Amino acid sequence: MTYEIALIPGDGIGPEVVDRSLPVVEAAADAHGVSLETTRYDWGSDRYLAEGAMMPDDGLDRLRGYDAIFLGAVGHPEVPDHVTLRGLRLEITKGFKQHVCKRPSYLFEGVTGPLRDYGAGEIDFVVYRQNTEGEYADIGGREYRGHDNEVAFQGAMFTREGTETIVRAAFEAASEREGKLTNVTKSNAQAYGMVFWDDVLREIAGEYPDVEVERLLVDAASMDFVRRPDEFDVLVASNLFGDILTDLGAGISGSMGLAPSSNIDPTQTHPSMFEPVHGSAFDITGEGVANPIGTVLSWELLWAHLGEDALARELRAAVRAQLADPDAPRTPDIGGESGSEAVANDLRTRLG
Ligand code: NAI
Ligand code: MG
After folding, report:
1. pLDDT in tens, 221-267
2. Strand boundaries in the chain, DSSP class E
3. Nearest Cα residue to atom 16 of ligand 1
4. What tens digit of pLDDT does each residue of 202-225 get?
5. Do residues 163 and 130 touch, judged by C-beta distance below 8 A?
6. CATH assignment of 124-252, given 1.20.1300.10, 3.40.718.10, 3.30.1330.60, 1.10.150.20?
7. Which residues form the Isopropylmalate dehydrogenase-like domain (predicted)?
8. How far is the CA of 239 from the centre of ligand 2 (A)?
9. Topology annotation, domain 1-99+259-352
């Protein structure tokens, strides 16, 4: 089987983690008889600074025919964050109806998380984040700029399609995992969008009688991520809440550098996009110490999505073995002194 993948390494450590992960992924694919054809797009902040746009006008059309898209990260110290995010990542997630952002958190053996009471495998949950609308809808405006009556308005949008899609994906995942779904909203304070969300969830829950539903307000959920993370299995949340909770999920599982993410169109009409959770990390760009594991685990999600389960498992097994080995190289974010390249080279030796 041959897969065509569009690579958008992007900014900062994006190209570093993409380039370090590729030889590992290619070697694993080779061993499984999977052929991987990548096309690289130099879209991102350098393009914006030179040409005024993060990607070309026909960017989505160029990506449409691929089996999947792999993104590094975007974000540049000289470009406002809302420009980098909206000009590329959100264009793609919204344009390709990637309503579902699936982000697993797992505490691997050999990784010391900040919570002292939890060991390997005891943190193991997946957040399903609505990925195309909610609080990140492009709705709002500013008036009376610079005057003392200045006003900014920021809307949020919850559609039936967007909400049903994420909720259904989360129920499907819960029924395949432990049969437990935690719905995270803030319906006490946000009585329109979030109450609509709860209504949709209640309707769909009827189709999944075997899934137990727990409801949490997002503030309480944040506390419980720290207090009882072992009790979570699948969580579903809006765009903003899911964004925040998954950084917390990365934190309690040891490092932002270990966290994978996927942006999925469940109808498979458009290609889905895979990327590490982290951003461009200016603070470590160019130092060669970015952890490539979150990126390798994002490739795991990509292969699982494309149905190459054995290949996906192989990448995960290599990561698991490396992290569990106290003598293996590791990057500084998880307590080591090695660089990205040493970690990637070591991962290759653990394949097969
Ligand atoms: P960040 O995720 O880039 O970095 C947060 C912290 O985690 C930093 O201390 C960084 O050094 C560390 N870190 C991140 N990835 C790491 C890795 N692979 N290995 C080791 N340490 C790692 O978030 P930050 O600093 O808030 O944002 C930097 C830029 O990235 C901003 O422009 C922001 O808008 C953008 N961003 C882009 C995202 C994307 O492309 N999907 C997601 C998050 C932020
Ligand atoms: Mg985030």
Report:
1. 999 999 999 999 999 999 999 999 999 999 999 999 999 999 999 99
2. 2-10, 35-40, 68-73, 100-106, 124-130, 140-143, 151-154, 180-185, 212-217, 234-237, 260-264, 272-276
3. 257
4. 999 999 999 999 999 999 999 999
5. yes
6. 3.40.718.10
7. 4-347
8. 10
9. Isopropylmalate Dehydrogenase (3.40.718)
Closest listed ligand to the CA of 86:
1
What are the tens digits of pLDDT across the range 159-176?
A: 999 999 999 999 999 999
17 lines ligand 1 (CB under 6 A): yes
- Residue 271's pLDDT is 98
Angle between helices 309-324 and 293-305 (to 10 degrees): 160
**pLDDT for residue 352:** 78
Q: Do the domains at 1-99+259-352 and 124-252 have one common CATH topology?
A: yes
- Average pLDDT value over all residues in the chain: 97
Which of 256, 293, 331 maximizes ligand 1 atoms within 8 Å of its Cβ, making it the mutation to test the pocket? 256
- What's the confidence (pLDDT) of residue 231? 97
